[in-house]
Specification:
Elements: E1 5-8, H1 10-18, H2 25-28, H3 32-37, E2 42-47, H4 48-56, H5 62-72, E3 78-83, H6 95-107, E4 110-116, H7 122-132, E5 138-145, H8 153-164, E6 171-176, H9 183-196, E7 202-206, H10 213-223, E8 227-230, H11 244-253, H12 265-279, H13 291-296, H14 300-311, H15 319-332, H16 342-356, H17 365-371, H18 384-391, H19 396-400, H20 409-416, H21 421-429, H22 432-440, H23 454-465, E9 470-475, E10 478-483
Parallel strand pairs: 1-2, 1-8, 2-3, 3-4, 4-5, 5-6, 6-7, 7-8
Antiparallel strand pairs: 9-10
Protein backbone atom coordinates (compact mmCIF):
# COMPACT_ATOMS: atom_id res chain seq x y z
CA UNK A 1 0.00 0.00 0.00
CA UNK A 2 1.22 3.53 -0.76
CA UNK A 3 0.80 7.04 0.60
CA UNK A 4 -0.22 9.37 -2.23
CA UNK A 5 0.15 13.14 -2.48
CA UNK A 6 -2.76 14.76 -4.30
CA UNK A 7 -2.30 18.01 -6.21
CA UNK A 8 -5.31 20.25 -6.91
CA UNK A 9 -5.69 21.64 -10.44
CA UNK A 10 -9.16 23.21 -10.14
CA UNK A 11 -8.08 26.86 -10.39
CA UNK A 12 -5.68 26.28 -13.29
CA UNK A 13 -6.14 23.17 -15.42
CA UNK A 14 -9.76 22.46 -14.54
CA UNK A 15 -10.98 25.87 -15.57
CA UNK A 16 -8.53 26.02 -18.48
CA UNK A 17 -10.01 22.83 -19.90
CA UNK A 18 -13.69 23.54 -19.21
CA UNK A 19 -14.11 27.31 -18.80
CA UNK A 20 -11.74 28.58 -21.47
CA UNK A 21 -9.48 30.11 -18.77
CA UNK A 22 -12.20 32.61 -17.79
CA UNK A 23 -12.22 31.93 -14.05
CA UNK A 24 -11.80 35.30 -12.37
CA UNK A 25 -10.36 35.65 -8.88
CA UNK A 26 -13.79 36.41 -7.45
CA UNK A 27 -15.10 33.06 -8.68
CA UNK A 28 -12.54 31.17 -6.56
CA UNK A 29 -11.90 33.45 -3.57
CA UNK A 30 -14.95 32.38 -1.49
CA UNK A 31 -13.67 28.80 -1.27
CA UNK A 32 -9.91 29.38 -1.63
CA UNK A 33 -9.38 29.12 2.18
CA UNK A 34 -11.22 25.79 2.17
CA UNK A 35 -9.07 24.45 -0.67
CA UNK A 36 -6.02 25.59 1.31
CA UNK A 37 -7.07 23.56 4.38
CA UNK A 38 -8.01 20.41 2.46
CA UNK A 39 -4.56 18.81 2.57
CA UNK A 40 -3.38 19.02 -1.03
CA UNK A 41 0.37 18.78 -1.54
CA UNK A 42 0.26 21.68 -4.01
CA UNK A 43 -2.32 23.97 -5.60
CA UNK A 44 -1.87 24.50 -9.35
CA UNK A 45 -2.62 28.21 -9.67
CA UNK A 46 -1.72 29.85 -12.95
CA UNK A 47 0.06 29.97 -16.31
CA UNK A 48 0.79 32.62 -18.92
CA UNK A 49 -2.18 31.76 -21.12
CA UNK A 50 -4.50 32.43 -18.17
CA UNK A 51 -2.93 35.87 -17.76
CA UNK A 52 -3.72 36.73 -21.38
CA UNK A 53 -7.36 35.62 -21.17
CA UNK A 54 -7.94 37.41 -17.86
CA UNK A 55 -6.75 40.66 -19.41
CA UNK A 56 -8.38 40.37 -22.81
CA UNK A 57 -11.65 38.61 -21.98
CA UNK A 58 -12.27 39.33 -18.30
CA UNK A 59 -10.69 42.81 -17.99
CA UNK A 60 -9.00 41.70 -14.77
CA UNK A 61 -5.44 42.42 -13.69
CA UNK A 62 -4.03 38.89 -13.25
CA UNK A 63 -1.28 40.01 -10.87
CA UNK A 64 -3.85 41.54 -8.51
CA UNK A 65 -6.14 38.51 -8.73
CA UNK A 66 -3.21 36.18 -8.11
CA UNK A 67 -2.16 38.18 -5.04
CA UNK A 68 -5.64 37.83 -3.56
CA UNK A 69 -5.67 34.06 -4.13
CA UNK A 70 -2.17 33.60 -2.70
CA UNK A 71 -3.15 35.58 0.41
CA UNK A 72 -6.27 33.41 0.80
CA UNK A 73 -4.24 30.17 0.61
CA UNK A 74 -1.17 30.67 2.83
CA UNK A 75 -0.68 27.03 3.89
CA UNK A 76 -0.32 25.13 0.62
CA UNK A 77 2.46 25.69 -1.97
CA UNK A 78 1.14 27.37 -5.12
CA UNK A 79 2.35 26.17 -8.54
CA UNK A 80 2.71 27.84 -11.93
CA UNK A 81 3.36 26.25 -15.32
CA UNK A 82 6.14 27.37 -17.66
CA UNK A 83 6.70 26.51 -21.31
CA UNK A 84 10.48 26.73 -21.52
CA UNK A 85 10.74 28.87 -24.64
CA UNK A 86 7.47 30.77 -24.87
CA UNK A 87 4.89 32.61 -22.82
CA UNK A 88 1.58 33.17 -24.65
CA UNK A 89 2.31 33.31 -28.34
CA UNK A 90 2.87 30.26 -30.51
CA UNK A 91 6.25 31.76 -31.37
CA UNK A 92 9.45 31.85 -29.31
CA UNK A 93 9.89 34.17 -26.31
CA UNK A 94 13.32 35.64 -25.42
CA UNK A 95 15.13 33.84 -22.61
CA UNK A 96 15.37 37.03 -20.55
CA UNK A 97 11.61 37.49 -20.61
CA UNK A 98 11.01 33.87 -19.58
CA UNK A 99 13.42 34.31 -16.66
CA UNK A 100 11.65 37.53 -15.64
CA UNK A 101 8.27 35.81 -15.91
CA UNK A 102 9.36 33.04 -13.52
CA UNK A 103 10.90 35.54 -11.08
CA UNK A 104 7.74 37.64 -10.96
CA UNK A 105 5.56 34.58 -10.38
CA UNK A 106 7.84 33.64 -7.50
CA UNK A 107 7.79 37.19 -6.10
CA UNK A 108 3.98 37.01 -6.11
CA UNK A 109 3.98 33.79 -4.11
CA UNK A 110 4.52 30.73 -6.33
CA UNK A 111 6.90 28.28 -4.72
CA UNK A 112 6.34 25.36 -7.08
CA UNK A 113 6.77 25.24 -10.84
CA UNK A 114 6.44 22.74 -13.63
CA UNK A 115 8.56 23.37 -16.72
CA UNK A 116 7.98 21.76 -20.08
CA UNK A 117 9.12 21.83 -23.67
CA UNK A 118 7.35 19.63 -26.21
CA UNK A 119 10.57 19.26 -28.21
CA UNK A 120 12.63 18.86 -25.03
CA UNK A 121 15.01 21.79 -25.15
CA UNK A 122 16.51 20.45 -21.93
CA UNK A 123 18.98 23.33 -21.54
CA UNK A 124 16.14 25.86 -21.49
CA UNK A 125 14.13 23.78 -19.03
CA UNK A 126 17.09 23.52 -16.68
CA UNK A 127 17.87 27.24 -16.96
CA UNK A 128 14.38 28.05 -15.70
CA UNK A 129 14.63 25.41 -12.98
CA UNK A 130 17.75 27.17 -11.72
CA UNK A 131 15.87 30.48 -11.63
CA UNK A 132 13.22 28.87 -9.43
CA UNK A 133 15.90 27.97 -6.90
CA UNK A 134 16.64 31.68 -6.36
CA UNK A 135 13.39 31.65 -4.38
CA UNK A 136 13.69 28.22 -2.79
CA UNK A 137 10.93 26.87 -5.04
CA UNK A 138 10.50 23.29 -6.18
CA UNK A 139 10.47 22.49 -9.88
CA UNK A 140 8.99 19.53 -11.76
CA UNK A 141 10.49 18.62 -15.10
CA UNK A 142 7.60 17.61 -17.36
CA UNK A 143 7.41 14.90 -19.99
CA UNK A 144 4.61 15.89 -22.37
CA UNK A 145 3.41 12.39 -23.18
CA UNK A 146 2.13 11.44 -26.60
CA UNK A 147 1.66 8.24 -28.57
CA UNK A 148 3.72 7.90 -31.73
CA UNK A 149 6.21 5.47 -33.28
CA UNK A 150 9.11 7.66 -32.10
CA UNK A 151 7.95 8.46 -28.55
CA UNK A 152 9.16 5.20 -27.04
CA UNK A 153 9.87 4.34 -23.42
CA UNK A 154 13.57 4.67 -24.24
CA UNK A 155 12.99 8.15 -25.67
CA UNK A 156 11.29 9.36 -22.49
CA UNK A 157 13.76 7.59 -20.19
CA UNK A 158 16.61 9.45 -21.89
CA UNK A 159 14.88 12.77 -21.18
CA UNK A 160 14.31 11.81 -17.53
CA UNK A 161 17.97 10.89 -17.18
CA UNK A 162 19.00 14.36 -18.32
CA UNK A 163 16.41 16.17 -16.21
CA UNK A 164 16.94 14.16 -13.03
CA UNK A 165 20.70 14.70 -13.19
CA UNK A 166 20.09 18.38 -12.34
CA UNK A 167 19.82 19.28 -8.65
CA UNK A 168 17.32 21.95 -9.67
CA UNK A 169 14.72 19.36 -10.76
CA UNK A 170 12.77 17.98 -7.79
CA UNK A 171 10.26 15.68 -9.48
CA UNK A 172 9.34 14.24 -12.87
CA UNK A 173 5.85 14.99 -14.19
CA UNK A 174 4.23 12.74 -16.78
CA UNK A 175 1.74 15.05 -18.52
CA UNK A 176 -0.76 13.19 -20.69
CA UNK A 177 -2.73 15.92 -22.47
CA UNK A 178 -4.80 13.51 -24.56
CA UNK A 179 -5.53 10.99 -21.80
CA UNK A 180 -4.20 8.06 -23.82
CA UNK A 181 -2.14 6.33 -21.11
CA UNK A 182 -3.47 2.96 -20.02
CA UNK A 183 -2.17 0.01 -18.03
CA UNK A 184 -0.24 -1.72 -20.80
CA UNK A 185 1.87 1.33 -21.65
CA UNK A 186 2.20 2.49 -18.04
CA UNK A 187 3.54 -0.94 -17.05
CA UNK A 188 6.64 -0.39 -19.21
CA UNK A 189 6.90 3.43 -19.17
CA UNK A 190 6.82 4.07 -15.41
CA UNK A 191 9.52 1.52 -14.49
CA UNK A 192 11.74 2.92 -17.26
CA UNK A 193 11.34 6.43 -15.85
CA UNK A 194 11.82 5.41 -12.22
CA UNK A 195 15.07 3.70 -13.19
CA UNK A 196 16.46 7.04 -14.40
CA UNK A 197 14.80 9.41 -11.91
CA UNK A 198 17.44 9.15 -9.14
CA UNK A 199 14.76 8.56 -6.54
CA UNK A 200 12.88 11.74 -7.39
CA UNK A 201 9.07 11.47 -7.17
CA UNK A 202 7.03 10.74 -10.29
CA UNK A 203 3.86 12.81 -10.83
CA UNK A 204 1.01 12.06 -13.24
CA UNK A 205 -1.40 14.48 -14.88
CA UNK A 206 -3.78 12.83 -17.36
CA UNK A 207 -6.78 14.59 -18.89
CA UNK A 208 -9.76 12.24 -18.87
CA UNK A 209 -10.66 12.76 -22.54
CA UNK A 210 -11.16 9.07 -23.23
CA UNK A 211 -12.73 8.30 -19.87
CA UNK A 212 -9.87 6.00 -18.86
CA UNK A 213 -7.56 8.26 -16.84
CA UNK A 214 -9.16 7.42 -13.49
CA UNK A 215 -8.18 3.78 -13.98
CA UNK A 216 -4.76 4.84 -15.29
CA UNK A 217 -4.17 6.77 -12.06
CA UNK A 218 -4.73 3.64 -9.97
CA UNK A 219 -2.47 1.58 -12.24
CA UNK A 220 0.19 4.29 -11.96
CA UNK A 221 0.02 4.16 -8.15
CA UNK A 222 0.63 0.40 -8.27
CA UNK A 223 3.72 1.07 -10.42
CA UNK A 224 5.26 3.66 -8.09
CA UNK A 225 3.79 7.06 -9.06
CA UNK A 226 3.29 9.01 -5.83
CA UNK A 227 1.81 12.39 -6.89
CA UNK A 228 -1.51 12.55 -8.79
CA UNK A 229 -3.28 15.61 -10.20
CA UNK A 230 -7.03 15.95 -9.60
CA UNK A 231 -9.78 18.59 -9.71
CA UNK A 232 -13.04 19.17 -7.87
CA UNK A 233 -15.82 17.24 -9.62
CA UNK A 234 -17.62 20.13 -11.41
CA UNK A 235 -14.29 21.06 -13.05
CA UNK A 236 -13.02 17.52 -13.60
CA UNK A 237 -13.22 14.84 -16.28
CA UNK A 238 -13.92 15.35 -19.97
CA UNK A 239 -10.91 17.40 -21.11
CA UNK A 240 -9.84 17.91 -17.46
CA UNK A 241 -8.25 15.48 -14.99
CA UNK A 242 -10.14 12.92 -12.86
CA UNK A 243 -12.12 14.20 -9.90
CA UNK A 244 -10.60 14.30 -6.44
CA UNK A 245 -13.85 12.86 -5.06
CA UNK A 246 -13.65 9.62 -7.02
CA UNK A 247 -9.87 9.28 -6.92
CA UNK A 248 -9.71 9.66 -3.14
CA UNK A 249 -12.56 7.14 -2.80
CA UNK A 250 -10.78 4.65 -5.05
CA UNK A 251 -7.49 5.06 -3.20
CA UNK A 252 -9.17 4.27 0.09
CA UNK A 253 -11.03 1.29 -1.37
CA UNK A 254 -7.67 -0.17 -2.43
CA UNK A 255 -6.00 0.47 0.92
CA UNK A 256 -3.84 3.46 -0.04
CA UNK A 257 -3.62 6.60 2.11
CA UNK A 258 -3.67 10.36 1.51
CA UNK A 259 -3.71 13.59 3.51
CA UNK A 260 -7.06 15.04 2.41
CA UNK A 261 -9.85 16.12 4.72
CA UNK A 262 -12.72 14.75 2.65
CA UNK A 263 -15.30 16.73 4.62
CA UNK A 264 -14.00 19.88 2.90
CA UNK A 265 -14.62 18.62 -0.63
CA UNK A 266 -18.44 19.13 -0.83
CA UNK A 267 -18.54 22.90 -0.15
CA UNK A 268 -15.88 23.52 -2.80
CA UNK A 269 -17.71 21.38 -5.36
CA UNK A 270 -21.05 23.01 -4.54
CA UNK A 271 -19.56 26.47 -4.95
CA UNK A 272 -17.96 25.84 -8.34
CA UNK A 273 -21.09 24.09 -9.62
CA UNK A 274 -23.09 27.21 -8.75
CA UNK A 275 -20.49 29.47 -10.37
CA UNK A 276 -20.45 27.36 -13.51
CA UNK A 277 -24.22 27.37 -13.80
CA UNK A 278 -24.47 31.11 -13.17
CA UNK A 279 -21.74 31.88 -15.72
CA UNK A 280 -23.04 29.42 -18.31
CA UNK A 281 -19.81 27.38 -18.29
CA UNK A 282 -19.33 23.61 -18.63
CA UNK A 283 -19.53 21.53 -15.46
CA UNK A 284 -19.72 17.83 -14.56
CA UNK A 285 -18.33 16.52 -17.83
CA UNK A 286 -17.90 12.92 -18.95
CA UNK A 287 -16.46 11.66 -22.23
CA UNK A 288 -16.92 8.39 -24.08
CA UNK A 289 -14.06 6.36 -25.51
CA UNK A 290 -13.30 7.49 -29.08
CA UNK A 291 -10.65 5.70 -31.15
CA UNK A 292 -10.27 8.76 -33.41
CA UNK A 293 -9.13 10.76 -30.38
CA UNK A 294 -6.18 8.37 -30.00
CA UNK A 295 -5.12 9.11 -33.57
CA UNK A 296 -5.26 12.91 -33.46
CA UNK A 297 -4.57 13.34 -29.69
CA UNK A 298 -6.02 16.85 -29.66
CA UNK A 299 -6.42 18.34 -26.17
CA UNK A 300 -10.14 18.57 -25.39
CA UNK A 301 -10.40 22.34 -25.26
CA UNK A 302 -9.21 22.66 -28.84
CA UNK A 303 -12.23 20.93 -30.31
CA UNK A 304 -14.31 23.97 -29.42
CA UNK A 305 -11.80 26.17 -31.24
CA UNK A 306 -12.10 23.98 -34.32
CA UNK A 307 -15.87 24.30 -34.25
CA UNK A 308 -15.61 28.09 -34.06
CA UNK A 309 -13.13 28.21 -36.94
CA UNK A 310 -15.32 26.04 -39.16
CA UNK A 311 -18.43 28.05 -38.27
CA UNK A 312 -16.78 31.14 -39.74
CA UNK A 313 -16.81 29.34 -43.09
CA UNK A 314 -20.22 27.69 -42.58
CA UNK A 315 -18.46 24.30 -42.54
CA UNK A 316 -19.46 22.95 -39.13
CA UNK A 317 -20.23 19.55 -40.65
CA UNK A 318 -16.54 19.12 -41.59
CA UNK A 319 -15.32 18.68 -37.99
CA UNK A 320 -14.77 14.90 -38.39
CA UNK A 321 -12.69 15.65 -41.50
CA UNK A 322 -10.59 18.17 -39.55
CA UNK A 323 -9.95 15.67 -36.78
CA UNK A 324 -8.83 13.03 -39.28
CA UNK A 325 -6.71 15.60 -41.11
CA UNK A 326 -5.06 16.59 -37.83
CA UNK A 327 -3.84 13.03 -37.37
CA UNK A 328 -2.38 13.07 -40.90
CA UNK A 329 -0.71 16.47 -40.51
CA UNK A 330 0.83 15.39 -37.22
CA UNK A 331 2.38 12.32 -38.87
CA UNK A 332 3.64 14.39 -41.82
CA UNK A 333 5.25 16.94 -39.50
CA UNK A 334 7.26 14.32 -37.63
CA UNK A 335 4.93 13.52 -34.72
CA UNK A 336 5.32 16.62 -32.55
CA UNK A 337 3.74 16.17 -29.13
CA UNK A 338 0.17 17.44 -29.04
CA UNK A 339 0.56 20.10 -26.37
CA UNK A 340 0.91 23.87 -26.68
CA UNK A 341 2.12 25.17 -29.07
CA UNK A 342 2.13 22.15 -31.39
CA UNK A 343 -1.42 21.02 -30.77
CA UNK A 344 -2.48 24.44 -32.04
CA UNK A 345 0.09 24.59 -34.86
CA UNK A 346 -0.88 21.15 -36.18
CA UNK A 347 -4.60 21.73 -35.64
CA UNK A 348 -4.72 25.12 -37.36
CA UNK A 349 -2.85 23.72 -40.36
CA UNK A 350 -5.37 20.88 -40.55
CA UNK A 351 -8.24 23.40 -40.53
CA UNK A 352 -6.59 25.39 -43.32
CA UNK A 353 -6.08 22.24 -45.37
CA UNK A 354 -9.80 21.41 -45.12
CA UNK A 355 -11.14 24.94 -45.56
CA UNK A 356 -8.94 25.78 -48.56
CA UNK A 357 -9.65 22.45 -50.23
CA UNK A 358 -5.98 22.03 -51.14
CA UNK A 359 -3.51 20.66 -48.64
CA UNK A 360 -0.71 23.08 -47.65
CA UNK A 361 -1.88 25.69 -50.14
CA UNK A 362 -1.87 28.02 -47.14
CA UNK A 363 0.93 27.43 -44.60
CA UNK A 364 1.09 29.27 -41.29
CA UNK A 365 4.20 31.16 -40.17
CA UNK A 366 4.43 28.82 -37.18
CA UNK A 367 4.61 25.70 -39.37
CA UNK A 368 7.41 27.34 -41.35
CA UNK A 369 9.24 28.28 -38.13
CA UNK A 370 8.86 24.71 -36.87
CA UNK A 371 10.21 23.32 -40.15
CA UNK A 372 13.14 25.74 -39.89
CA UNK A 373 14.05 24.43 -36.44
CA UNK A 374 13.22 27.65 -34.59
CA UNK A 375 11.38 25.71 -31.87
CA UNK A 376 14.18 23.20 -31.36
CA UNK A 377 15.20 19.78 -32.61
CA UNK A 378 12.33 17.79 -34.11
CA UNK A 379 11.49 14.34 -32.79
CA UNK A 380 11.35 12.95 -36.34
CA UNK A 381 11.91 14.57 -39.76
CA UNK A 382 9.09 16.17 -41.73
CA UNK A 383 8.03 14.11 -44.75
CA UNK A 384 10.13 15.40 -47.71
CA UNK A 385 7.23 16.28 -50.03
CA UNK A 386 5.49 18.19 -47.25
CA UNK A 387 8.71 19.99 -46.31
CA UNK A 388 9.07 21.10 -49.95
CA UNK A 389 5.55 22.55 -49.93
CA UNK A 390 6.18 24.35 -46.64
CA UNK A 391 9.47 25.89 -47.73
CA UNK A 392 8.11 26.95 -51.12
CA UNK A 393 5.12 28.75 -49.60
CA UNK A 394 4.83 32.53 -50.14
CA UNK A 395 5.63 33.37 -46.50
CA UNK A 396 8.65 31.08 -46.13
CA UNK A 397 11.28 33.60 -47.26
CA UNK A 398 10.16 36.28 -44.80
CA UNK A 399 9.88 33.86 -41.87
CA UNK A 400 13.31 32.34 -42.53
CA UNK A 401 14.85 35.82 -42.74
CA UNK A 402 13.56 36.69 -39.27
CA UNK A 403 14.61 34.02 -36.76
CA UNK A 404 13.62 34.52 -33.09
CA UNK A 405 15.52 37.33 -31.41
CA UNK A 406 17.01 37.06 -27.92
CA UNK A 407 17.32 40.56 -26.41
CA UNK A 408 18.51 41.24 -22.86
CA UNK A 409 16.16 42.19 -20.04
CA UNK A 410 17.47 45.76 -20.24
CA UNK A 411 16.61 45.92 -23.93
CA UNK A 412 13.14 44.53 -23.25
CA UNK A 413 12.47 47.07 -20.50
CA UNK A 414 13.53 49.88 -22.80
CA UNK A 415 11.44 48.51 -25.68
CA UNK A 416 8.30 48.27 -23.57
CA UNK A 417 8.93 51.51 -21.69
CA UNK A 418 8.93 50.22 -18.11
CA UNK A 419 11.30 49.16 -15.34
CA UNK A 420 8.46 47.38 -13.52
CA UNK A 421 8.70 43.72 -14.49
CA UNK A 422 5.05 43.02 -13.58
CA UNK A 423 4.10 45.63 -16.15
CA UNK A 424 6.77 44.38 -18.56
CA UNK A 425 5.23 40.89 -18.56
CA UNK A 426 1.75 42.27 -19.27
CA UNK A 427 2.96 44.56 -22.06
CA UNK A 428 4.90 41.71 -23.66
CA UNK A 429 1.92 39.33 -23.48
CA UNK A 430 -1.03 41.56 -24.36
CA UNK A 431 -1.63 44.54 -26.73
CA UNK A 432 -1.77 47.94 -25.04
CA UNK A 433 -5.39 48.48 -26.13
CA UNK A 434 -6.45 45.47 -24.04
CA UNK A 435 -4.42 46.67 -21.07
CA UNK A 436 -6.16 50.05 -21.24
CA UNK A 437 -9.57 48.33 -21.13
CA UNK A 438 -8.40 46.23 -18.19
CA UNK A 439 -7.30 49.32 -16.27
CA UNK A 440 -10.54 51.12 -17.09
CA UNK A 441 -12.52 48.22 -15.60
CA UNK A 442 -11.14 49.00 -12.15
CA UNK A 443 -9.97 46.78 -9.33
CA UNK A 444 -10.45 43.02 -9.10
CA UNK A 445 -13.97 42.01 -8.08
CA UNK A 446 -13.72 39.71 -5.09
CA UNK A 447 -17.01 37.88 -5.53
CA UNK A 448 -19.20 36.54 -8.30
CA UNK A 449 -23.01 36.71 -8.32
CA UNK A 450 -24.49 33.24 -7.92
CA UNK A 451 -28.17 34.11 -8.44
CA UNK A 452 -29.74 31.44 -10.57
CA UNK A 453 -33.22 30.20 -11.39
CA UNK A 454 -34.83 28.37 -14.30
CA UNK A 455 -36.13 31.71 -15.57
CA UNK A 456 -32.76 33.42 -15.30
CA UNK A 457 -31.09 30.43 -16.94
CA UNK A 458 -33.48 30.84 -19.91
CA UNK A 459 -32.74 34.56 -20.17
CA UNK A 460 -28.97 33.90 -20.06
CA UNK A 461 -29.36 31.25 -22.76
CA UNK A 462 -31.30 33.68 -24.96
CA UNK A 463 -28.67 36.39 -24.51
CA UNK A 464 -25.94 33.96 -25.55
CA UNK A 465 -27.88 33.00 -28.67
CA UNK A 466 -29.24 36.41 -29.58
CA UNK A 467 -27.36 38.59 -32.03
CA UNK A 468 -29.44 41.74 -31.46
CA UNK A 469 -28.18 44.54 -29.21
CA UNK A 470 -31.19 44.25 -26.89
CA UNK A 471 -33.65 41.58 -25.77
CA UNK A 472 -37.09 41.88 -24.20
CA UNK A 473 -38.41 39.03 -22.05
CA UNK A 474 -41.70 38.57 -20.22
CA UNK A 475 -41.67 36.34 -17.13
CA UNK A 476 -45.11 36.17 -15.53
CA UNK A 477 -46.06 39.73 -14.59
CA UNK A 478 -42.49 40.99 -15.03
CA UNK A 479 -40.99 42.45 -18.18
CA UNK A 480 -37.24 42.71 -18.69
CA UNK A 481 -35.21 44.54 -21.29
CA UNK A 482 -31.61 43.41 -21.47
CA UNK A 483 -29.09 45.52 -23.38
CA UNK A 484 -25.84 43.98 -24.55
CA UNK A 485 -22.74 45.96 -23.60
CA UNK A 486 -19.73 45.34 -25.80
CA UNK A 487 -16.17 45.40 -24.57
Amino acid sequence: MAHIDILDTTIRDGQQALWGMRMTAGMALPVAPIIDRTGYSTIDLTASSLFEVLVRSCRENPWDGMDLLVQAMPRTPKRAGMRSNAAVSFGVTPDALMDAWMRQLAIHGCRSFWVYDVLFNIDKMLRLAKVSKEFGATCAGALMFTLSPVHTDEYYADKVKKLAASPDIDSILIYDTAGVLEKERLSTLVPALIAEARGKPIELHANNILGQSGKAYLDAVDLGVTVLHTSTRPLANGPAVPSVQMFAHNLEMLGHTHDLDLSLLPPVADHFEKVGRAAGYLINQNNEYDVLAIQHQIPGGMVGTFKANLAQHDMQDRLPDVLRETAVVRRELGYPGMATPFSQIVGIQAVLNIVSGKRYEIVTDEVIAYAAGFYGEMVAPIEPNVLDRIMSSPRAKDVLANPPENPSIEELRKRHGTDNDDELILRALVPEADLEKMRAAGSVKQNFPLMSSPELDQVQKLMRLARTPSLQATIGMMQLELIRQEG
